[in-house]
Amino acid sequence: MTSDVATSTAYGHICFAYDDPATLDSRAVAFLAAGLAAGEQVWFVAPGTRDALARRLDGLPGLDDSLRRGAARLVSTGQTYRADEPFDPETQVRAYAAATEAALAAGHTGLRLVAEATLLVRTPAQRNVFARYEHLIDRYMHRRPMSAICAYDRRELGEPAIAELACMHPETNANVLFRLHSCGPAEGAVALAGELDPSNHRLFAAALERADLRPVDGELVVEAARLRFIDHRCLMQLRDHARRLGVTAVLRTSRSAAARLVELLDLADIRVEVTR
Amino acid sequence: MRTGAAAGHTGYFHEAIFFDSDEHLLAVVLPFLLGGVEAGEPAVVGFGQRNADLVRRALPPDSGVTFLPGGDVYVRPTAAIRSYRQLLASYVADGAQQIRIVGELPTAGLGSTWDWWARYESAINHAYDDFPLWSMCAYDTRIASEQVLEDVARTHPRVALPDGTHLPIGVYTEPRSYLTEPRPMLLDPVQRSAPMVELTDPTPAQARAAVYTADRGQLPADDVEDLVVAVSETVTNALRHGRPPMRMSIWSADDRIVVAVNDAGEGPADPFAGLLPATSGSPGGLGLWISYQSCNHVAMHRGPEGFTLRLTAGNPHFPV
Predict the structure, then answer these.
(1) Which of A220, B2, B7, B57 could be disulfide-bonded to A215 (CB atoms 3.0-4.6 Å)?
(2) How close, in Å, is residue A229 to chain B by CA atoms?
(3) Residues 6+ apart with CB under 8 A from A22
(4) Which residues of A touch B237 (CB under 8 A)?
């Protein structure tokens, strides 16, 4: 578990890896109860029948009433992620955007959900697509009142597979050293948190590619106030990624060592702005 | 066309000056510099304040000799190689046929950090050999120890004498031999106390976190950040290229943090490891090169207990 999860960004896109489904259920109950208390519409999205899902949320105060009022919904995974069709990130984001706007129109303050998505990320190809989706929906959640826990079964997927998805969330309990997530357009194209070193430089390259970042005015600005460490390999990867986009990478960090590495290695097409 | 003693020589013409008086130093240095100016060659002085003033006063006004600012170039050997290579390349780009430089290490460099400067003196025979450089490294025999003077003799092919002669030094040893000889590692006195942290086979992330726990605010934050970079690279190298078990120990003193990383392997095979970026793609070369520029001292030791790299942030100078 990374140490800065608790102080992470507040918009609420959390990757939750679990070994025991009961820990997910109790986390879901607490998360959704907070949503109901805040006037949000809440969804529990998981495989299984409606009754099975209701049983898993047993501890949620006023569940029956919330279900009757339409403040809470139980969604069997097949209903929202269609297993018979290839998963399309943009279609799925549009669906959640519509659901969020509908919840707002119905008088709720937003949409909050717990989604058990293990079924959708079993193969490397599925994870590649779903990691792209995770960043797309992260961008949506950053600007609209939607929040989510994305839950993944560690027993089924294993730690490395979960890391591919966890690193696309601002918050996670999974064993992943860095996170790449959304930030405001004034702050940059994307935010980086945690630590980047040889243990994760391939994952970092994949995350950059999957995030499909959009440079502005010839620069790919990375907001890295919560990046605690970046090594020369990952700086070069960021530089290479910016080069492929035909722009300069700009890393805004409080860590001056990154600036010295860029100078030492004479790296072109990347600039480190030290902010203190 | 090169002029003077190095006329007809290809590459680096590397000499030592063993002086015991101002007169001796000036007798070698003045004709060297003025001969360079006369021949239209860049003539550069990289001395500390005292001897730079001595030479400046002895030269005619507007002599055309260039004085490098302060002694900044000799803070860390790898950085010195990097900045001298940049300087030499710019002179060559401007058409220089030969560049003449006299330099001296700060006195502090002749003590507990001499080991990495001795490696520097040897490595530059190779690192500057692609330039038409004639340089003299001045050592004050009243200050330098027997060990230092022996290393200087073994790392300089020639000596420049005050009578104007230039003689080969018989004990000169090729860098690839000299740099692979076993060298003892002087024990930093802080290593006589129990380490503040000891870890076996830490991940780089655990090693970085351990450095922060040893930081009691005694060093500037940037120095700690640079040590973290060096430790991360060192531990990564030990995990990738060394042999387990890897042990990391950290000592935290009032003016420094000292980190030793030991593994059961042989250490880097490249004799220039740390001093030059790995040109042949030798494993771990770039990380070690970065570490050499991120710390105030790096010491290496091969022994029966394997390979040890010791990194010092803060003040690396202790009585020898």
Answers:
(1) A220
(2) 8
(3) none
(4) none
Q: Does domain B189-314 have CATH number 1.10.10.10?
A: no
**Res. B93: pLDDT tops 90:** yes
DSSP annotation of B195? P
Indicate yes or no: CB of B204 within 8 angstroms of CB of A197: yes
pLDDT (tens digit per residue) in A68-102: 999 999 999 866 666 567 899 999 999 999 999 99
Q: Is A43 in the same domain as A120?
A: yes
Which residues in A lie closer than 8 A to residue B240 (C-beta atoms)? 198
Q: Domain boundaries in chain B?
A: 4-178, 189-314
Percent of the residues in chain A that have a pLDDT greater than 90, as a whole number: 91
- Residue ranges of B 248-307 with Cβ closer than 8 A to chain A: 286-287, 290, 293-294
Is pLDDT of A7 > 90? no
Strand B166-168 and strand B158-160: the pairing is: antiparallel
Domain endpoint, select from A127, A150, A174: A174
- Residues of B within 8 A of A260 (CB-CB) are 226, 294
Distance CA B6, CA B35 (A): 12
Residues 6+ apart with CB under 8 A from B278: B270, B284, B285, B286, B288, B289
Reported ipTM: the value is: 0.91
Closest of A184, A147, A269 to residue A219, by C-alpha:
A269
Domain count across chain A: 2
Q: Are A133 and A211 in contact (CB under 8 A)?
A: no
Interval B9-35: pLDDT, tens: 999 999 999 999 999 999 999 999 999
Kindly report, residue by residue over A31-76, the tens digit of the pLDDT: 999 999 999 999 999 999 999 999 999 999 999 999 999 999 999 9
* A256 contacts on B by Cβ (under 8 Å): 221-222, 225
CATH number 3.40.50.720 given to B4-178:
no
Those residues with Cβ within 8 angstroms of residue A124's Cβ, 6 or more apart along the chain or in another chain: none
- Cβ of B204 within 8 Å of Cβ of A255? The answer is no
